[in-house]
Specification:
It is built from 16 helices and 17 strands. The chain has about 600 residues and is of the alpha+beta class. The strands form four sheets. The protein has a five-stranded antiparallel beta sheet. β14 and β15 form a beta hairpin. α4 packs parallel to α5 and α10 runs antiparallel to α11. Bound molecules: adenosine-5'-diphosphate. Adenosine-5'-diphosphate binds next to α13 and α15.
């Protein structure tokens, strides 16, 4: 936050305003008061002197009119000197009496007696002799002070018989005034000083809470809401501080809510199994969750602000506006030769109430598995139809031949019927297998496990095959001598082993050997059935467990297989908690292995 400069602070503004106000007030009062006082004092001074003049005037007139014929009567000049001597006072520097011929009759100034008898040239005197009352304030160079000069006519019987010329020391009045002025200035300075101090205190009182609020606002901007502004009183600033604290609280709550929402949203986004991408109104990525980044194999940091069309690799087919207008979802196929990867993208625009589009949300859903299942389902249906059509067309042609007369033939008739019977049985087997698989596919497929000695169980099955075998194939048993108790569904496992052994028999050459092995490992047993038949090409070893997969379709169909046996086996072993796989050397033989969970300790307990 910017620091407030000293001269810009409220502190100094307050002090300046206060001091200026006081100064202006004092100035106005001073000018008015001193002006009035000056007038008053000058007037008082002048009135004081003027008040004494009539008596002097009267006495002078008396002296002027006196008959001076006798010798013993003092001269007019002498009498006047006496009068002036009596009249003189400290505030009067000189009084002169001039007769109507402008001759100075007397002066009160002892050092200036020389002018007595001389003609006065003073203009004021002249004018007063014509009946005018004159007075003026002068600056006197000699005394370095102001003097008041007054010329007043002496009239008798309507005639001017002389003039009184008076010089008074009015400077004393101005000295008094200056003293008063000084007192006033000192008072003003003291008042200004006190005001400045008060201004500082007042400014502090006002600025302290404001500074507190400023600090608080700075802290709030940094995300610290724990501070509180101190409330100093219940005035407007106090209430402002109260409101500020309230605001802080509300902001803190709002921020906590927003933060909570943000965290919720971010955890929702990060734990979502779908990918979510949000763009701004120009189509640039602003939010991308981990799942989306993982799906698109990009890093979240690098794709921010990248155009969404580029990120989804759609720039050639779609513009951002096209994506906004897209009502249906778009399938994004990122499959490579070895890896299937298909995403479904659903768009939704972020719109304001005004209709202004703010951005786009793209939800990515991994539909690889779904698409794969769809493809498998389609393939399965076509396989089933194909598998059913083959025996049906065979049967139709045989039945047609029979109805065309072959039935009459003693040799062909029963043979053709045998073929149709075989095909029917194969169809029943196929349908049974399909039913089995569909049961296994349903969610509530369960097995009925029971504790079985696997060695005895396995021997029984092998015995059954050995007794009923039609071909010259040797059976070799490499089975443990002791019993191995496992928890299995006997019927289901019989079905698995039957299928594996019948395959081994089917593909075994004349005089070949089928080897049966059971090996114990930690936690499981491994069962293997090896033949010396044609074998399975390496690339098909895993595929033989897929539904309807056959290495050589034509030949295996001849051998009566449905292509579902190993697929069923895989499901059954799977629910038992085991695994099944094939090993083979082409032309030399095949080994089908499967494992079953086995715990010797539990077996002991059970015994
Ligand atoms: P089928 O009913 O056709 O035998 P399976 O699921 O049992 O169906 O077997 C699938 C395919 O695996 C067979 O069609 C065959 O091509 C191959 N196969 C299975 N067992 C053997 C084996 N022991 N030797 C050679 N090929 C085999």
């Amino acid at each position: 936050m910017q620091k407030v400069g000293f001269f810009r602070s409220i502190h100094i503004k307050f002090v300046l305003i206060y001091v200026l106000l006081i100064m202006i007030a004092m100035q106005i009062i001073g000018v008015y008061f001193v002006g009035k006082l000056e007038d008053q004092l000058v007037e008082n001074f002048q009135n004081g002197i003027k008040g004494r003049l009539p008596l002097l005037e009267y006495n002078i007139k008396e002296e002027f009119n006196k008959d001076r014929a006798g010798e013993e009567i003092p001269s007019l000049e002498e009498e006047v000197r006496h009068l002036l001597y009596d009249f003189s006072a400290t505030d009067i520097s000189e009084v002169r009496i001039i007769n109507n011929r402008s001759v100075v009759i007397g002066t009160s100034e002892p050092s200036n007696q020389g002018i007595v008898g001389q003609k006065s040239t003073d203009i004021m005197v002249k004018r007063s002799l014509s009946g005018e009352h004159l007075d003026k304030i002068y600056y006197d160079e000699d005394t370095k002070g102001r003097i008041w000069v007054l010329a007043s006519p002496i009239s008798a019987n309507g005639e001017v018989i002389g003039s009184i010329f008076l010089v008074a020391k009015i400077e004393t009045v101005f000295e008094q005034l200056e003293e008063i002025n000084n007192i006033f200035i000192t008072g003003t300075v003291i008042a200004m000083f006190i005001t400045a101090l008060l201004g500082i205190l007042l400014a502090r009182m006002i600025t302290k809470p404001i500074s507190d609020m400023k600090r608080q606002a700075t802290a709030m901007a940094k995300g610290n809401f724990s501070r509180k502004v101190r409330v100093y009183g219940n005035d407007e600033i106090g209430q402002l501080a109260h409101s500020f604290n309230h605001l802080t609280k509300r902001l803190q709550e709002a921020q906590a809510t927003t933060e909570g929402e943000r965290r919720k949203l971010s955890s929702v986004l990060s734990f979502m199994t779908d990918g979510v991408i949000a763009t701004d109104r120009k189509g640039k990525v602003i939010v991308i969750n981990e799942r989306a980044a993982e799906m698109l194999n990009v890093s979240r940091e690098t794709v921010l602000l990248q155009p969404i069309t580029e990120l989804l690799d759609l720039q050639e087919e779609y513009s951002f506006e096209d994506l906004q207008a897209e009502q249906d979802s778009i399938l994004l196929d990122y499959s490579t030769r070895d890896n299937h990867f298909i995403l479904r993208a659903n768009m939704s625009i972020i719109q304001r109430e005004t209709g202004f589009v703010n951005g786009l949300i793209v939800v990515l859903h991994d539909v690889t598995e779904q698409e794969k299942l769809d493809a498998e389902r389609r393939e399965f249906v076509s396989n089933v139809s194909h598998e059913l059509r083959t025996p049906l067309t065979t049967m139709r042609s045989y039945l047609e031949a029979l109805s065309d007369g072959a039935i009459e033939d003693k040799e062909l008739g029963p043979r053709f019927l045998g073929v149709t019977q075989n095909e029917t049985e194969r169809m029943i087997r196929l349908v049974n297998d399909l039913l089995d698989l569909s049961k296994m596919d349903s969610r509530n497929f369960t097995i009925n496990p029971g504790w079985v000695d696997f060695v005895t169980f396995f021997n029984h099955i092998i015995d059954r095959f050995e007794m009923s075998k039609e071909r010259n194939v040797h059976f070799k048993r490499l089975l443990p001598k002791h019993s191995i108790f496992v928890e299995i569904d006997e019927d289901k496992l019989t079905q698995v082993i039957d299928n594996i052994i019948s395959n081994a028999l089917k593909y075994s050459p004349e005089g070949g050997t089928i080897t049966f092995r059971v090996k114990e490992f930690e936690g499981e047993i491994e069962v293997s059935i090896s033949d010396q038949g044609i074998g399975i090409p390496k690339e098909n070893l895993e595929k033989v467990f897929e539904r309807f997969y056959r290495v050589d379709r034509a030949r295996t169909r001849q051998l009566g297989g449905t292509g579902l046996g190993l697929a069923i086996a895989k499901e059954i072993i799977g629910v038992h908690g085991g695994a099944i796989w094939a090993k083979s050397q082409e032309g030399k033989g095949t080994t089908i292995c499967f494992t079953l969970p086995y715990d010797p300790v539990q077996e002991d307990d059970w015994l």
